[in-house]
From TrEMBL:
GO terms for biological process: DNA damage response. Residues 674-694, 713-793 are annotated as: Disordered. Keywords: Coiled coil. One of its GO terms (molecular function) is protein phosphatase activator activity. Belongs to the SMEK family. The lineage of its organism: Eukaryota, Metazoa, Chordata, Craniata, Vertebrata. Residues 5-101 form the PP4R3 EVH1-like domain. This is Serine/threonine-protein phosphatase 4 regulatory subunit 3. Regulatory subunit of serine/threonine-protein phosphatase 4. GO terms for cellular component: nucleoplasm; protein phosphatase 4 complex. It comes from Pleuronectes platessa (European plaice).
Amino acid sequence: MSDTRRRVKVYTLNEDRQWDDRGTGHVSSTFVERLKGISLLVRAESDGSLLLESKISPNTAYQKQQDTLIVWSEADNYDLALSFQEKAGCDEIWEKICQVQGKDPALDITQDPIDESEEERFEEIPETSHLVELPTCELSRLEEIADLVTSVLSSPIRREKLALALMSEGYIKKLLGLFRVCEDLDNREGLHHLYEIVRGVLFLNKAALFEVMFSDECIMDVVGCLEYDPALVQPKRHREFLTKTAKFKEVIPITDSELRQKIHQTYRVQYIQDIILPTPSVFEENFMSTLNSFIFFNKVEIVSMLQEDEKFLTEVFAQLTDEATDDSKRRELVNFVKEFCAFSQTLQPQNRDAFFKTLANLGILPALEIVMGMDDLQVRAAATDIFSYLVEFSPSMVREFVMQEPQQTDDDVLLINVVIKQMICDSDPELGGAVQLMGLLRTLIDPENMLASTNKTEKTEFLSFFYKYCMHVLTAPLLANTAHDKNSKDLQEGSTKINPVCPDNFQTAQLLALILELLTFCVEHHTYHIKTYIMNKDLLRRVLVLMNSKHTFLALCALRFMRRIIGLKDEYYNRYIIKGNLFEPVINALLDNGTRYNLLNSAIIELFEFIRVEDIKSLIAHIVDNFYKALETIEYVQTFKGLKGRYEQEKDRLSQRLNRYRRDARSLDEDEELWFNDDDDDEDGEAVEKRMEDDFSDSYGKYMEAKKVAANGANGANNNNNGKAAVSPPSSPPVTPNNSSASSVKTVALPATPVVKTALVGLVDYPDDEDDEEEEEDEEEEQSPRKRPRLSS
């Protein structure tokens, strides 16, 4: 049983005048040889490590507060506190401290703190002036009392002496008795003096005085005194608010009278600090430190008492999830849990951990799953706040619960899907709730807070779960608002018109922007899962429909999504973009924007500049081959000329590589040199083709044969040079009529055949390079008219 009595929490006061929890352990008082004296030792209950080792100095001022707290200062600006689980343990240690210092345990303070400057003055004061003599507590002497209280605030020694005098003579209750008399007589002058007196007593910063002033017997009279500020023409009506307006609601009756009293006291003291007392000046902040501590320890005690009352919290969650509970009662229950969670934010991390673990064990998440799906907006808003506290505390705890839910046929009942649906259905025109929920979803799907040390499979398992059961719910509004874009593939004209299904409603546009922001986050952080989803759903094509939106912010969100994809420099994505001709809506948006110099213009140019700087070859070839005609007139930036330059450089490099292959082939066979020295073009072409078929890899040979058949089919029999037919550009004939049309890129809704050919763009350059070889052989006139339209017509 001694362990229970001696169980304590160790606190230190930080620079912000807030108490930091240093741990829980068991305190003892023993002689420490190294410190040469009786010392207080606290060893952690978890591992037995030493949390505190403090010698009981004869000159240190120890204070006993609220029957279970001992507070003292060991050095300048270093305050310590022991919070005991039981009053008996606190009394034992207090008696030991008083015994070492030779003090009476009946006192709540063992010493008067004296700094050096005060000590020097103290030595000069005659012995008879050690105690502050209080005037008789009479109406006629209220002004004298007020002057005395105000005058001592500048001196630490005199504050201590006055506090002792006020406690020893029961002076506070006598003053409050005079307040009632003055109020009955409407003695405004006396009431103003009492305001100054009570305010000064609060600034004495003594817990023992607070215990008296904030007791049930006295606190309303203290509030009454503080109503009569001399600076006000009419007194405030704080007591009327506390007794009539502010109602204490018990969603579940609290049977513990001590807990009820503590809740009332904490609310009223918080009201005094926040509402009644003026904001303290820089010089007065230290006067309120003990009041802050008083409120803090009260809150810790309230949370602890509620956590320990298992019947109370169990009943709260039972009624919260009971279908028979009426709406008004459920609203009060949810609001109680919300306030309870908000209350916990003042606690130290260890206390907060225990608090949320208790709620988790009681079933807070299943309860949220039910109430977040209700129609009552107030209930849903409060449930969202509770959910945010839980996600902020432990995303892993929420993820673990979600994955343990039974996989029912209807995915809508899953907690995350309930959250997504609430985000989608937010009725607020500004989507305030949706923005909050989107942030919570981002936290849940963020791999950065999925701790590999605790569960190595958490990331894989949760993301697989999310993409299987939840992603379709998240993307449903996006897919619904771009559903009819499939028909545009069949349109050769009009692709630049505003898409009729593109959301022009501002609230819908905002929602889609939020969804796109979350999807963009997924592209950056989820790699495999989101890549598979984009490919399977053709998601980027659907997103780029939004480039036609009249809301520029939504078009920018769609562009940002594509920019993140391209930023990964993943060839799987690049081939997907090329095959789907997905640069078309982006270039159309750039051309529709015209000469306006705005964010959309800059963002699109930055996209192409990134491709140029990073030298993404497949995309550069695709852009130049298909869109350069429309882009070459844009000269206020050098981006598109730079793309063309990169394209030409790559052509030259590939040409040199091909020439090197040829030189190697000729060196292997002297007879072949005779063929190449022959001026006959037909024989030259046949020799090249023969050598390539003999020495290149089988796959390359097969490719050239396929190219030869395709070129012969496109060109007909008008060319009897077999070597040239084998290396003619396969994509030129279909691209030429498309590019030469009047609508330029605006009508580049390409049919299936050219789309397939652009996927081979990495190899198309080989035939072009052979054309360069043939230019040296005076064949330029025949080939150049077909090559130029492909790049720039």
